[in-house]
Amino acid sequence: MSRWWTETVAALGDAVPLPLAALLLLAGAVLVALAWYFFPAWVPRRLPRLGRPRLPRLRLPRFRLPRLRLPRLRRPKLRLPRRRPRRDTPVVPVPAPRSPEPAAAARAGLADRLAAEGRYAEAVRERLREMVRLLVARRLVEPRPGLTVTELTAAVARVRPDVHPTLHTAGAIFSDLWYAQRPATAAHDHRMRDLAADLRRELADEGSAR
After folding, report:
1. CB 134 within 8 A of CB 105
2. Is the pTM of this model over 0.70?
3. Burial class (CB in 10 A: 0-12, 13-18, 19+), 176
4. H-helix or E-strand containing 51?
């Protein structure tokens, strides 16, 4: 390497005179010193940006899909049946026959058949209907639907206080079997039969007294 350096310096010495080479070296040293002294004032703050080639924009055609109009579905309105107010007092079955005597006999026969079949609760109901028919026939109570046991006994008590205990006992037996859901026995049917007989006798005594 020393040989190469020696030959290079000899070649430069032959091409450039020594005083010129010394002057060039001195000028280069001054430039380097100035650059070092004023650094970084001479460095540009912003470097030029290289512009990117702009590609042409491709405009694609817009496709519009047709709008689908679906039919509106209407919700079905559910109408619930109105609930009638529940009565705490039991309702008495109130039939209103025009001919009370044959109907009462038929009801009594039906009640006896039901009792013979062991259907004591239905037999008690039929005997109460028989008693109500007798009261309607005597015009002691008006035959209107929805009549309760309490209303029945209260209406009859205002006109005939003497038959109020009989009707009150019969209404209590009917309420216990049909609304309190107590098991019906033959004793209930016998008791209702006696009460129906007592009512017929009391009404007959009132008619004969007149």
Report:
1. no
2. no
3. middle
4. none
Give the residue carrying structure tokens 């579905």: 73
**135, 154 in Cβ contact below 8 A?**
no
Q: What's the one-letter identity of residue 18?
A: L
- The first and second tokens of residue 27, run together, are 């000028």
Phi-psi label, residue 181: left if phi above 0, alpha if psi -120 to 50, beta otherwise: left
Here the tokens at position 163 are 């038959």
Name the 3-class secondary structure at 126. helix
First to last CA, the chain: 167
- What φ, ψ does residue 114 adopt, rounded to 5°? -65, -40
Token pair of 155 as six digits: 């209406």
Cα–Cα distance, 53 to 150 (Å, whole number): 105
Question: Tell me, what amino acid is at 209?
Answer: A
Tell me what pLDDT residue 36 has: 80
| Distances, alpha carbon 118 to alpha carbons 85, 97, 172, 185, in Å | 33, 27, 21, 8
pLDDT band at 93 (very low <50, low <70, confident <90, very high): low
By CB atoms closer than 10 A (0-12, 13-18, 19+), residue 111 is buried
pLDDT at 82: 57
**Cα–Cα distance, 199 to 193 (Å, whole number):** 10
- Pick the most confident of 92-101, 105-114, 120-129: 120-129
